């Protein structure tokens, strides 16, 4: 069943209103009709099964049939901190990691980041990234849209690490701890109802420098490996996130 996110103010006691591109999508692309059913979410706490009552060019009105218990969100809250990659790779990271279960994205710039940061293009790019997160969340039947922060400087990323229960940095030269090892205590805590916050830091195409690894470890991150194979920057976050979801029981319960 198709799912749409709406602004909380569009969520009434008995009806909901769907506007803009979503309204056009319902009417023109999906060719929906009155009495067709949808699932809507305000992205915060309310989710409902609704029945379309009226379709207009810029607005779809639907009556609430049943309030639902949001069920599409993982218990572990994972932030993908991604050093800005070249081309459209960040879009791929946001789309796929949203589907897998990321809670938020924190783009950042590191020493070997190739992308040139242009504040004049930032607003347009941010809108594009958030649209991708919204569409991916709808496709995956998420109850919330992951947040996408503005690109941060390296020192800003380091300053954020204390906000997390666990911060890991993926480093291809790390042959000691593996992600599974550091996740065990968090999986045990989750069985008791905890919802830990985890950050995974991914380097750019050229990887992190040794100095950066020293700095991020000093700031509280744990350096981990993802196996014996070297992964591309756009692949590493997806692999790490999938491992986290599996090890914390998020890929085996329906």
Summarize the structure.
The protein has 254 residues and is α/β, with parallel strands linked by helices.
Protein described:
The protein has helices at residues 20-29, 89-100, 119-139, 154-160, 179-190, 210-218, 233-247; strands at 3-5, 15-19, 37-41, 47-55, 59-68, 77-83, 104-108, 147-148, 166-170, 197-202, 222-224. The protein is globular and about 60 Å long. Helices cover 34% and strands 24% of the residues. It has seven helices and eleven strands. The chain has a six-stranded parallel sheet, with helices on both faces. It has a five-stranded mixed sheet with strand order 1-3-4-5-2. It is α/β, with parallel strands linked by helices and 254 residues long.
Helix-residue proportion: 25-40%
Quaternary form: single chain
Low-confidence stretches: none
Intertermini distance: 17 Å
Strand content: 15-25%
Specify the biggest β-sheet. Answer: 6 strands, parallel
Strand arrangement across the biggest beta sheet:
8-7-6-10-9-11
**What gross morphology would you assign?**
globular
Q: Please, what is the average pLDDT?
A: 90
Structural class: alpha/beta
With helices defined by DSSP (H or I, 4 residues minimum), what is the helix count?
Answer: 7
Number of separate strands: 11
The ordered string of helix (H) and strand (E) elements is: EEHEEEEHEHEHEHEHEH
As a whole number of angstroms, the C-alpha radius of gyration is 20 Å
Catalytic activity: uridine(1498) in 16S rRNA + S-adenosyl-L-methionine = N(3)-methyluridine(1498) in 16S rRNA + S-adenosyl-L-homocysteine + H(+)
GO cellular component, one term: cytoplasm
Keywords: Cytoplasm, Methyltransferase, rRNA processing, S-adenosyl-L-methionine, Transferase
Domain Ribosomal RNA small subunit methyltransferase E PUA-like: 18-65
């Amino acid at each position: 069943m198709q799912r749409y996110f709406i602004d909380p103010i569009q969520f009434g006691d008995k009806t909901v209103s769907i506007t803009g591109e979503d309204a056009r999508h319902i009417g023109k692309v999906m060719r929906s009709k009155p009495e067709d059913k949808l699932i809507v979410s305000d992205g915060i706490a309310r989710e409902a099964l609704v029945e379309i009552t009226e379709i207009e060019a810029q607005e779809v009105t639907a009556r609430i049939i049943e309030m639902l218990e949001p069920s599409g969100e993982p218990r572990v809250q994972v932030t993908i901190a991604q050093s800005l990659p070249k081309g459209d790779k960040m879009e791929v990271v946001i789309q796929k990691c949203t589907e897998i279960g990321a809670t938020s994205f924190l783009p950042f710039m590191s020493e070997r980041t190739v992308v040139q940061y242009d504040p004049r293009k930032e607003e347009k790019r941010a809108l594009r990234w958030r649209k991708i997160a919204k569409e991916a969340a709808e496709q995956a039947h998420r109850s919330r849209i992951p947040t996408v922060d503005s690109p941060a400087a390296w020192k800003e990323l380091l300053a954020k690490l204390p906000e997390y229960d666990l911060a890991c940095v993926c480093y291809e030269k790390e042959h000691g701890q593996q992600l599974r090892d550091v996740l065990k205590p968090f999986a045990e805590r989750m069985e008791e109802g905890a919802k830990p916050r985890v950050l995974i830091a991914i380097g750019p195409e050229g990887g992190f420098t040794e100095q950066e690894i020293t700095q991020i470890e000093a700031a509280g991150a744990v350096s981990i490996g993802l196996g014996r194979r070297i992964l591309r920057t756009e692949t590493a976050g997806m692999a790490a996130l999938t491992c986290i979801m599996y090890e914390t029981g998020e890929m085996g319960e329906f």
